[in-house]
Amino acid sequence: MKLIHVLGLVPFLGMLGGLPYVNKPGAFVLGMPLNLFWIVLWVILTAVIMAIVYAIDPDNREEESS
User: Fold this and answer.
1) Tens digits of per-residue pLDDT, 9-66?
2) Between 37 and which of 23, 26, 32, 48 could a Cys-Cys bridge form, CB atoms 3.0 to 4.6 Å apart?
3) What is the sign, positive or negative, of the torsion defined by CA atoms of 61, 56, 10, 5?
4) Measured between alpha carbons, how far is 24 from 57 in angstroms, rounded to an integer?
């Protein structure tokens, strides 16, 4: 399994796998309930991870050089 495939799984596992653990009533982070903060955090992290996948994917390097 390539690194880009593993990186593609990280947002899925982070968002859905961690949600049952952060679903606690009364906990707030930055004014948001903890579970909402968790989802917003993973949306941002997903964009960062996908940018990393784009940068290290060898198929994208070939398009830039031609």
Assistant:
1) 999 999 888 888 888 888 888 999 999 999 999 999 999 999 999 998 888 876 555 5
2) 32
3) positive
4) 38
b/e per residue, 44-53, with b = 16+ CB within 10 A? eebeebeeeb
Please state, in angstroms and as integers, the Cα–Cα distance from residue 2 to each residue in 6, 8, 42, 57, following that order.
7, 10, 22, 10
Contact 55, 62 (CB under 8 A): no
Question: Would you state the pLDDT for residue 65?
Answer: 59
What is the per-residue DSSP string for 1-66? --HHHHHHHHHHIIIIIHHHHH--TT-EETTEEHHHHHHHHHHHHHHHHHHHHHHH-HHHHHHHH-
